[in-house]
Amino acid sequence: MDQAYEAFVNQLRAALGAFLQGRFSAIGATLIAYGVFAALRAVSFLVTDREKVRRVEAEIRSWEERRRKAVEARDTRLYERVLREKSRVDRLKRELEAERLKASVAALVAWVAFFKVLWDAVGSLPVVDVPLPWGYARATFAAWFVANSFWAGAILDRAARGLTALSERRAR
């Protein structure tokens, strides 16, 4: 098993090595990092029961809207009737959080696996010159990957929302 992993890492090192050297190594490293994060988003997407999440979110929104209307109308009888469902809604909120946690744990496990493999393959390879007040420093692929980790997920989520909105607009 150890030899198979070593062979895989060597193949990956050979494939990515040329991509991470030369003038455009920072672009290559960034594309790899964003590709990994796209794969992590796919893992989260596949693990999540989206139909359950939509249904639970709709029920919670409906209850919160009924509660808001009861408060605005100052109807104590209606408010008490709505409040009777609070324990059910709290249970639904816990289910929703469990579903989101499941996706987060799956993405974290996948991130650690990707990072371990990439670290073994090209982690110590310098890929980008980072400007500092006292000069330039060479950042390794692992450092660049971690630095991109801070905002890659948010950028990919925003791009996905934009594509979803665009496809919905075209469907109309």
Description:
This protein is mainly alpha-helical and 172 residues long. The protein has one domain (24-167). The protein contains 6 helices and 2 strands; from the N terminus they run αααααββα. The protein has helices spanning 2-17, 25-47, 50-73, 76-83, 86-122, 141-171, and strands spanning 126-132, 135-140. A two-stranded antiparallel sheet has the order 1-2. Strand 1 and strand 2 form a beta hairpin. Helix 3 (50-73) crosses helix 5. It is elongated, with a radius of gyration of 23 Å. It starts with a helix and ends with a helix. The mean pLDDT is 88.
Alpha-beta classification: mainly alpha
Uncertain ranges: none
Q: How much of the sequence is in beta strands?
A: 5-15%
Distance between the termini: 53 Å
Domain count, please report it. Answer: 1
Short description:
By secondary structure, the protein is mostly helical. It has helices spanning 2-17, 25-47, 50-73, 76-83, 86-122, 141-171; strands at residues 126-132, 135-140.
Features:
single chain, about 170 residues, mainly alpha, two-stranded antiparallel sheet, 2 strands, elongated
